[in-house]
Amino acid sequence: MIQYTKDNLIKLLKTQGSEYQTLIDNALAVKKNNIGNKIYLRGLIEYSNCCRKNCLYCGVRSNNTKISRYTLTDDEVYECADLAMQLGYGSLAIQSGERNDKTFTDKIAELVYQIKKRSDNQLGITLSCGEQTEEVYKQWYEAGAHRYLLRIETSKEELYYKIHPRDKVHNFQMRLESLNILQRLNYQVGTGVMIGLPFQTVEDLADDLLFFKQLDIAMVGMGPFIPHPDTPLWIYKDAIPSVEMRMQLTLKMLACLRLLMPKINMVAATANQTLYEDGREQAVLAGANIIMPNLTPNKYREDYLIYPDKACVGDKPMQCSFCLKGRMMNIKHEIVYNQWGDSQAFTEKQQ
Ligand code: SAH
Ligand code: SF4
């Protein structure tokens, strides 16, 4: 395999025109050779927008008083799970604002356990519920969750503190430690960054890619930063790369990572589709192989606006499933139903 150095990666992240297209085409070829043209689905449940954190970029941050806070009822969660089964989605992803009280952590364990039971272990479960203690991560794993997504947001500590408050709750080293614990507990661990953040350079992004490689992650979820008017980082909205540039950078990041880590799972983030109508297709053509169609009951979606103008907020799950199938067929990709779609990189490492 080619060895990619920071300098190579910086060059690739700066390509334009025909060289850019070559990069994207190479990534697609590497994906097809290693894991094929298959797309796996994670039905997304945005469980709750109650959050103890105050990240400077996020619409769900605790200081934002403009949204009403919700948490799904148990029945609503089980309805989402049943819907996922009906639609043939092989896995669920439960995402939530971060809470670390026992009521919350026990509830997640119970929901995971019950979903596994009622689906007869047919649904795989990815959790994305922030930083927790080792005990809690262990409890959730034992309840049946086997994948965890926790974005590092940026691997550069200095930048981390420009996009988070500097306090005990937002701690870069703790976030790193959480990723280590998750790996130790044998979760398939995913991380990721936002692309096009204020103060972020191409050098930083190259370091992010090397960080993923060094951590030997099983999956990645990364996407463009989208400024939200009710957050402190909104003031930089004109100081960040344009929509077009952020999209291109995102696609270059995906393509480079596919070259670096041919067999990991890579999400085509919904944030891509917020920037461009066919943003997820573009991500798939740059190397992504996972899509997360939203299953959250429509009445709550307006309150889970991590970033503004999120795509598909009004779509019903059935429409969404149908739409995705067509979209993937158009770009010669095949959606796989009723399978977990584990990270091949992870599976091979286990053997
Ligand atoms: N609370 C959990 C999971 C929900 S937030 C956590 O923080 O890990 C999920 C992701 O949304 C975050 O990791 C962040 O990368 C992304 N996000 C938040 N605000 C965003 C914005 N303005 N633009 C793009 N992505 C954003
Ligand atoms: Fe909370 Fe996650 Fe948003 Fe941070 S990014 S404010 S932890 S929901």
CATH architecture: Alpha-Beta Barrel
Give a quick account of the main beta sheet: strands, pairing sense, barrel closure: 9 strands, parallel
Query: What is the string of helix and strand elements?
Result: HHEHEHEHEHHEEHEEHEHHEHHEH
**Radius of gyration, in angstroms, nearest whole number:** 19 Å
> What low-confidence regions span 5 or more consecutive residues with pLDDT below 50?
none
Can you count the beta strands? Answer: 11
Task: Quote the distance from N terminus to C terminus.
Answer: 21 Å
Total number of distinct structural domains: 1
Q: Categorize the overall geometry.
A: globular
Oligomer: single chain
Mean pLDDT: 96
Strand content: 5-15%
CATH class division: Alpha Beta
Number of helices: 14
Topology:
Elements: H1 6-13, H2 17-35, E1 38-48, H3 74-87, E2 91-96, H4 102-118, E3 124-128, H5 134-143, E4 147-149, H6 157-160, H7 172-184, E5 188-191, E6 194-195, H8 202-215, E7 219-220, E8 223-224, H9 243-260, E9 265-266, H10 270-275, H11 279-285, E10 290-291, H12 298-301, H13 317-330, E11 334-336, H14 344-350
Helix pairs in contact: 1-8, 2-9, 3-4, 4-5, 8-9
Bound molecules: S-adenosyl-L-homocysteine and iron/sulfur cluster.
Iron/sulfur cluster binds next to loops.
Describe this structure in a few short sentences.
Helices cover 44% and strands 12% of the residues.
Keyphrases for this structure?
351 residues; alpha/beta; TIM Barrel; 9-stranded parallel β-sheet; two-stranded parallel ribbon; 14 helices; 11 strands; globular; binds S-adenosyl-L-homocysteine; binds iron/sulfur cluster
